[in-house]
Amino acid sequence: MVRQCTNKIKCSQCQRRHYNVMCPELKQVVSTGSDKLVAKAVENSNEKFHTLANPTCSADVLLQTLVVYLYGNDGNFPVRALIDTGSQKSYITKEAVSKMSYEPIRAEDMIHNLFGGVESKQKHHLYKVYASSFQKDYHCSFEAYDQETICIDIPRAISGPWTKEIEKKGIFLSDKEACLDDSASSVHLLIGADIAGATLNHLLDGAPDCYKMTAQHLQKSMYVDNCVASVKSEADLTKFINESREIMALGKFELRGWQHNSFESLRDNCKESQNASHILQDIPVLGLLWNIERDTLKIDVRNDTQSESVKVTKRYILSKCHKIFDPIGITAPITLIPKILLQETWKIKANWDDILPEEIAHKFEKWDRQLHQLNKLEIPRWIQGHKNSKHSLHVFCDASQQAYATCIFLRSVNQQGVTCHLVAARSRVAPLKVFPFPDWSYWVVASA
């Protein structure tokens, strides 16, 4: 209830105690004519709409901007930077390059793929950029290409009552109105996705000595913003999680969403789940689905069978085939079928959008209808080896006029018996896919 709420927020439309989006008067204005509301918002704002966002009560759309210090022979000065994870490269304005007296490393001709599929060819000079955080407690260097203008002026965070609320949560905003004067409002540095990995490696390389072992383990376990690691025991599991959090917190990173299995509890859960009616939870891990209770991996195949109106073409077959993400290669006998059909389309010299002959289309439709069966296919995540186990690799090959295949199995012999696990598979049109099986019993994943 409003009378029990401790938040002192007030609506800018009617001055009552609720957020703007919940204002009844706002809903009335929108229903009677949204053009007047938008016109009023633009009239009351000094900024113009610079984005493709839907019209709102505010003309400003805040992006991931921050203030960093650039270092050169003549000292250092603060500039605004923009984090753009959609860019494969980092860029710096020619004005900043001139001010810092950076020397070019080399020149490159690059093709930019822009919004709407437009391509433009430009020549850029590559520079070594030296930068630090606004607090100057973190320094790094990276390569960036020069650009005349990175983007138009982007609004900064406006100081207000919410600033104190953000500070209470330990969040520091460097790109605020008071940090730089109006003359330095332009963005001079674009930080692309290529810098994220370098920043993380720098953090892990500089970890305290007491965390060196965990930092090295964490560095081998990171993939983009996900962590997938194996540990030997539950004690190592607790140590890895706690120390990983502390290491990442040094760089203001947060590892969250921890998921892990325990073989002691796994045995009990498996017995209980035999008669359970609920569906066991599948956790996505790097494109695969991991079932914690059964400790199995399976392929994530979406049930999107084609409609009768869809015409089977070479482009359509290729699209459906590539929707199956299988880095291990366990579905190679299944995914090989549409690839053979594609070979047949090349023989008849069919174009990408030509409707294929009925014989080829019928074979593909039959394969497509049965594709959902792959969701039932599961393989054990852990090859349950013991200290006294003896392991051996067994390779099987076979070939025909259409395709050939190779499978590699790991055979383990111990006191409990003999077990075999598929660790690699290969088809004619796909390279050998080796599954990096861990020899430890505890698996842990997290995301940043």
Estimated radius of gyration: 29 Å
Structural classification? alpha+beta
Average predicted confidence as pLDDT: 77
Beta-strand proportion? 25-35%
Strand line-up across the major sheet: 1-2-7-3-6-5
Shape: globular
Oligomer: single chain
Helix count? 10
Major sheet: size, sense and barrel closure?
6 strands, mixed, barrel
What is the rounded distance between the termini? Answer: 36 Å
Number of strands: 19
Order of helices and strands: HEEEHEEEHEHHEEHEHEEEHHHEEEEEE
Poorly predicted sequence stretches spanning 5 or more consecutive residues: 27-35, 41-57, 265-279, 430-441
Helix content: 25-40%
Short key terms for the protein model shown above:
19 strands, single chain, six-stranded mixed β-barrel, nucleotidyltransferase, alpha+beta, RNA-directed DNA polymerase, Peptidase_aspartic_dom_sf, RNA-directed DNA polymerase activity
Characterization of this structure:
- InterPro entries: Aspartic_peptidase_AS, Peptidase_aspartic_dom_sf, Retrotrans_Pao.
- By secondary structure, this protein is an alpha+beta fold.
- Helices cover 27% and strands 28% of the residues.
- The protein contains ten helices and 19 strands.
- The protein has a six-stranded mixed barrel with strand order 1-2-7-3-6-5. A four-stranded antiparallel β-sheet has the order 8-9-19-10. The chain has a four-stranded antiparallel β-sheet with strand order 11-12-13-14, with no helix packed on it.
- Strand 12 and strand 13 (296-299) form a beta hairpin.
- Helix 4 runs antiparallel to helix 5 (212-221) and helix 9 packs antiparallel against helix 10.
- It is globular, with a radius of gyration of 29 Å.
- Residues 27-35, 41-57, 265-279 and 430-441 have low confidence and may be disordered.
